[in-house]
Amino acid sequence: MKADPSKAGYNSRVKEDQAKTSFYLEAKTQLISRLKANADQGLTSAEAEQRLASNGPNKLEEEATTPMWRRVLAQFKDFLIIILIIAAIISGAMGEMADAIIIIAIVIVNAVLGVLQEGKAEEAIKALKDMSAPEARVLRDGQQKMVPAENLVVGDIVLLEAGDIVPADIRLLDSSNLKAEEASLTGESVPVEKQADFCPKEEVGLGDRKNMLFSGTSITYGNGKGLVVAVAHDTEVGRIASSLQSIEQESTPLQKNLDHLGKVLGALILLVCVIVFVAGFIQGGEPIRLFMTAVSLAVAAIPEGLPAIVTIVLALGMNRMAEQHAIVKRLLAVETLGSIDTICSDKTGTLTQNEMTVREVYAGQGHYLVSGSGYDPEGEISLVEGSTEDGVALNRLLEIAALCNTAELQKQDGKFGIIGDPTEGSLLTLAAKRGISREKLQEAYRFEADLPFDSGRKAMSVFYTNFPEGAVSLTKGAPDILLNQCASEMVDGEIRPLTDERRQEILDANSSMAKKALRVLGFAFKVHAEGDFSDAEQNMCFVGLAGMIDPPRTEVKDAIAVCHKAGIRVVMITGDYAETALAIARDLQIADESSRVVSGLELDKLNDEELAQLVKEVSVFARVSPEHKVQIIQAIKSNGNSASMTGDGVNDAPALKMADIGVAMGITGTEVAKSSAEMILTDDNFSTIVSAVKEGRIIYSNIRKFVLFLLSCNVGEILVVFITNLLLGPSYSPLLPIQLLWLNLVTDSFPALALGQEKGEDDIMELPPRDKKEHIISKRMFVSILVQAVAIFVAVFVAFQIGRFYYPDYLAVDGEPVLDANGSYELIEQYDFYAHPDGTPSAGAHTFAFATLIMAELIRSFSTRSEHQSVFSMGFFSNSYMNKAFLVSAGLMLLVLYLPVLGGLFHTIPLTARDLGIVMLLSLIPFTIGEVFKRVKYHK
Prior knowledge:
By secondary structure, this protein is of the alpha+beta class. The chain has 35 helices and 30 strands. Strands 10, 11, 12, 15, 16, 17, 18, 19, 20 and 21 form a ten-stranded mixed beta sheet that branches. It has an eight-stranded mixed beta sheet with strand order 8-27-26-25-9-22-24-23, sandwiched between helices. It is elongated and about 120 Å long.
């Protein structure tokens, strides 16, 4: 159940928030002065305490959860439920306590089921709060101190190093080789370089603010010092928390459908009851008896079992989805999946593995492709056909990749992962695919020193001795800069001068990889005199290139192909770079060669109408902020589409909550994403979404089937009671209220539940998504309901008349049968019905009608298994649940007919073999009509 806030209000809040977060545009000295801070001494303890008392702690407030009593009360707001409660009260007041107790019992059972299945606390804010760092190292009173992160205030000076969690939004004042992991906030697939001296001239996206650190992200490399500019709800994470609170929930398509259905049925019930009462009164009927007939009609018209059956079928659907690795947290969201026509997805960690993987290597003059996935060292480095093998240069490149590296490759719970920088982790994995490990190399070669990565040099070097050449420096870095520092190259095991022609060939190879959205690193080395590593990064020997990417998940491409076949559009929304996003999108066939990518900065220039038009044409959005994701989802919904949002990061949380159904990754997803989503994928498999959509379509289709089944029965009951009363008089109701209750709640419920377990038609994922505005009762279904209701009326009315023939009516006074001198019922010998206002149908006539209606429903339930396909082509007994439902319901009917205690309660008599034969023949009428109708209407 998702949000539909005012666009103008939401977008205005976004613009206000953007104005508050332009700290990255200000000069450091100006910002320090404006915030009344001191870069060298920090705040005084007194000033910090004053600001803390004035502005509050650096923590996120939790949103109040819905109390249990409100959640219970919400279960009774349904229009049908209200009518049932009124009917129960009236029945109790009229002395029909059995009817009243049964109705109230089913209402309570439905409420309990709803509360148990839908019980979900708002954990998103708590999860955001839990991301906060427990302590922070600050300058106060001129000294370094460790203080609780929640005691940080704007103006504090914070010191950070590798491994720290950023405790607030911070403007960098100093930095040294600083990198921050921001994937969960921005979607950036690799750690971002941070530079205190970065000063843009104009606004840039969240992921490009290199002089800022954001609360909840982590430092992966280097160190720095910064000024706290925002705490608590003013941070980027805090703004996400605020947007989660501002997004209100709206009804799902099924809720709207059932509410509409309830109101229509309610109006129909009231209308028919009034007509019957007025017509009977004009004919001279007694008001009390007429009122009870009206109550019978109300009972007949209301599908009492429908709310509970919908709840149970959805709950069973939840269980099936859980078995397929999709946990649905809200009951009605199960069905919502079936109406999805647009799946919006984050890239990093959702469409891709969030594990950098080397795909191509260029060493000497050899060009190699690398197989395998993620950090698992299983895979091969194979030569491209037509290229020249250069094993010596390749091995040297892999040695540099392994030794010029600070990451660690490890295996945990059967899965490979890394500690440190993902790019360096991918290089360790690359070397391991050739059997080269840093540990073995360091046993042979002795580490002497290193020259850490620097954003100015764009390179990193390590120094080793005992190499075959002696003392060497090994360097990796940006290809263009590294190549400029090389005077020679390694080819076929020889050191050759690096010619201009070869430089261009190497640059072309670099460009070719970059066009595929690969992140490219260059590798070089230099031989030094023993112990002298001066000028290590000058006049080096070039070895080769390695191109890496966060690759698509292996199963995603096939899943997207299924989406296209099912009429579902897939849209990529990511904080990563446009080139990378478009390359991945084309690989997955989300986009083609003619497609374009739109950035967050471009979105800022559009109004709501322009954005709504744009989302119809563009399927790839890059460098977007959390607010942009929300606006894109909002625009898609404004076009009348049903949108799902898939993501795993903090930055995805508002969009997950805004979408018709949010889907979070269970393994790699942040707690914030999982708490904001309606569905969690426990296997992080995008194809599981497609399976869930299929299940949602099947569930909705099955709901339509049992709605058709139940309503055609209810309309048939209305026709039986209504027309019989009009034709024979107000005293002649073929079915008693308690019989109708039994049929609606017990007999019909088992087949309806069995219909909810249908496997679905084979072509269900080849049909276009349904319109979420479509009513559950379409025009075709309405005609089908009328046809079957008329068939039910004919069968039951004929059965009732036959029953009256075999078991004639008796005289009654105040509802009690009149006995003659011999103690037998005084029968009505003539059929001048209106001359005998106290005449009442015999128990035999009631039993004929009751048994025929039950058997007609049970046999007809097999036909209702498909709206357009013949049950014989499906396999008459192929639904085992239906077979069991038929036997159980038929068995219960026999108990009512032949068990004296129940016969007295339900006013039935034991039927003879002759009677049962007649009942069975009449019961075939609705089934036959239903099958003929499908044959004529759908030619199947």
